[in-house]
Amino acid sequence: MWSGPRNISTAMMRSWENRPDCSVVDEPFYAAYLADTGLEHPCRNEILLTKSTDYGKVIEELTSYPVNTPLQYQKQMTHHIPRGMSMGWCAGMKHCFLIRDPAEVIASYVQKMPEVDADAIGICRQAELFAEITGLTGETPAVIDSNEVLMDPEAVLGKLCAYLEVPFLPEAMLHWPSGRRDSDGIWASHWYRNVERSTGFGEYTPSRPQLSAAHRQLAAAMQPYYDELSRWRLRP
């Protein structure tokens, strides 16, 4: 599942992890991304100490290590993947893209981080990876919109499971126990507080984000990438 930040990506991971046949991987390239970019993020030192900073090693773990469940769900952040990196390692996997309106992403992101730019929110990179993976696999990946998930999670997840050719388990995927998981990244203490209190997908609340002029300009620049991806979404 290819997502950017602030996009119900952790709630979606909870939904899949609550299935009895699925295990999850939480942002496996985060440490490599921080080491590569030198960016200061919350929990940076802990992330670098506990996760591999070598892209090749992470790929080896994702493709060579045994998986003890029939399904594995990888929560991937698009901005963690550097341009020019070969994506051949994931050619045999099923790919899905989780999108969200750029203005809403930016409004949420700046509540957690002091600065935001196009690279940080990964929307442009998401569109690039969508095109690259489509060409690599010969299949158009599934696209789901976070707002539509919140409006009707049963319908959207049902369509996603149909696309993936796996059974839809509504009792497992629409409700889960609150709390932290052993599978959560060490960054959960900063980013996952709302999800830790959740027991399901939250209600959709229409919003009109109040953005600064600079943030409105960034949202406008990202809108065409979001619109292009939105054309391919699974509609509820």
Automatic annotation (TrEMBL):
InterPro entries per UniProt: Class-IV_PLP-Dep_Aminotrnsfr, P-loop_NTPase
Gene3D superfamilies assigned to the protein according to its UniProt record, in alphabetical order: P-loop containing nucleotide triphosphate hydrolases
Leader sequence segment: none
Organism superkingdom: Bacteria
Matches recorded under SUPFAM superfamilies: P-loop containing nucleoside triphosphate hydrolases
GO process annotations (BP): carboxylic acid metabolic process
Pfam families associated with the record: Sulfotransfer_5
PANTHER family assigned to the protein according to its UniProt record, in alphabetical order: AMINO-ACID AMINOTRANSFERASE (PTHR42743), AMINODEOXYCHORISMATE LYASE (PTHR42743:SF11)
Family to which this protein belongs: Belongs to the class-IV pyridoxal-phosphate-dependent aminotransferase family.
Identification of the protein by name: Sulfotransferase family protein
